[in-house]
Design a protein that fits this description.
The complex is a heterodimer. In chain A, strand 4 and strand 5 form a beta hairpin. Chain A has strands spanning 3-13, 23-26, 29-32, 34-38, 45-55, 59-62, 69-80, 86-90, 93-95, 99-102, 112-113. Helix content of chain A is 0%, strand content 57%. Chain A contains no helices and eleven strands. The radius of gyration of chain B is 28 Å and the shape is globular. By secondary structure, chain B is of the alpha+beta class. Chain B has two domains: 15-170, Scaffold protein Nfu/NifU, N-terminal domain (Ribosomal Protein S8, Chain: A, domain 1), CATH 3.30.1370; 175-255, Fe-S cluster assembly (FSCA) (GMP Synthetase, Chain A, domain 3), CATH 3.30.300.130. Classes of the chains: A mainly beta, B alpha+beta. Chains A and B meet through strand 8, strand 10 and strand 11 of A and strand 1, strand 2 and helix 5 of B.
């Protein structure tokens, strides 16, 4: 598992949004994003990052405390130690008070042409 | 022993200042309320346990579209024990096949070409991929062998002969036969074996003769899961159901709550 220096999340909200602060779970620690811009209101884009400097076991985006959050697209930019920065895109999902979604993905395995 | 007693007496002293406040509350309450006290106490607050949803990442094509040339990417596994080759052509449509040795590759031009390479141990062909294990387990650098494998795959494709023997395709078992055989070996052999470590294996899907499994309980997140999968489960599956092809593991090992060897 790599050591994550920072990661940045961009979430595109669909028709149903939320006005609560966006939280994430890193290794089961619930936290708020830093350098937040935009919002999770319907049709809006939310951006936030976090300086982690720790080894990743799990990373999830947490659903709202009440209501539903309809997400159209999630993009996560990872900057990990000894790895090239990489971006992972996820598709549509709806979160609520009982759910969170996994957004962690290991760095891509190096590949070469033969 | 005295040291241990001192430790416990020290702990007791730390707790004692808080207890009178509790005693005062109970003493001031009527006797009848004392009995009902456990019901009125606030429940301990534990963090909410949410269900973790999994959505597949959107992958972008690794090859340029509409290329006439045969393009091959080599991707060694992180442990270096095998290498995945992805080709921009279909090698085997809808099915997969595991070649254990040169004899099993008879009349399959692709596998024959690969077994002609000295260090190739086994060959798994699935859709547009080939997975190779090598004989020399001490080598983890795949660059040299990968180039030879790439040339062999390209050569077999350009020759245009039957990549996979017709007999293999004709005798391919149905999904039901594969499902029944794999489920039986899971129930009779695999699960009783991993139960000792609190683990379990579930058959999630069968597509053609390829199967997808999920590891749960003590196997999920276990540091020995890769070894269990490759040396235990693969071996049992292939022994009991020789015509099983690719075996995929879709376990999210980062979400394991009670791994045996953590």
């Amino acid at each position: 598992m790599p050591k994550v220096n920072t990661f940045k999340v961009t979430v595109q909200t669909g028709q149903q949004g939320m006005s609560e602060p966006v939280h994430f779970n890193f290794n089961n620690h619930k936290m708020e994003f830093q350098n937040v811009s935009g919002s999770a209101e319907p049709g809006k884009n939310f951006e936030g990052n976090f300086e982690v400097n720790s080894f990743a076991h799990s990373l999830t985006l947490i659903g709202p405390e009440s209501g539903k959050w309809e997400i159209e697209k999630i993009s996560v930019e990872y900057d990990c130690e000894n790895e090239k920065p990489y971006t992972v895109q996820f598709g549509a999902i709806t979160l609520d008070e009982s759910t969170e979604v996994n957004i962690w993905q290991d760095p891509p395995v190096p590949a070469f042409d033969v | 022993m005295n040291f241990i007693k001192r430790i416990f007496s020290g702990m007791k002293q730390d707790v004692e200042p808080e207890s009178p406040a509790v005693v005062e509350e109970t003493e001031s309450s009527p006797v009848a309320e004392e009995f009902s006290e456990p019901e009125t106490e606030p429940a301990p607050s534990f963090p909410d346990v949410r269900r973790v949803l999994q959505i597949p990442a959107i992958s972008e094509s690794i090859f340029p579209e509409n290329s006439d040339a045969v393009l091959i990417k080599a991707q060694p596994s992180p442990t270096g024990d095998q290498c995945l080759f992805t080709v921009n052509r279909s090698l085997m449509n809808g099915h997969s096949w595991y070649f254990v040795d040169f004899e099993s590759a008879a009349e399959s031009a692709l596998a024959e070409a690969l077994f002609c390479l000295e260090d190739v141990e086994t060959v798994l062909v699935c859709e547009c991929t080939v997975t190779i294990t090598r004989k020399d387990k001490t080598l983890v650098d795949w660059v040299s062998l990968a180039k030879e494998v790439g040339a062999a795959i390209r050569g077999a494709l350009e020759a245009g002969e039957g990549l996979i023997a017709e007999k293999i395709i004709a005798d391919m078992p149905s999904e039901d036969e594969i499902r029944e055989g794999i489920q039986k070996v899971i129930d009779v052999e695999v699960n009783p074996g991993v139960a000792g470590h609190g683990g379990n294996i579930a058959l999630m899907a069968v597509r053609g003769n390829s199967v997808t499994i999920q590891m749960g309980g003590g196997c999920q997140g276990c540091s020995a899961a890769d070894l269990t999968l490759k040396q235990g489960i693969h071996t049992s599956f292939r022994k009991a159901v020789p015509k099983v092809g690719a075996i995929f593991d879709e376990t999210d090992h980062t979400a394991g709550l009670n791994p045996f060897f953590s």
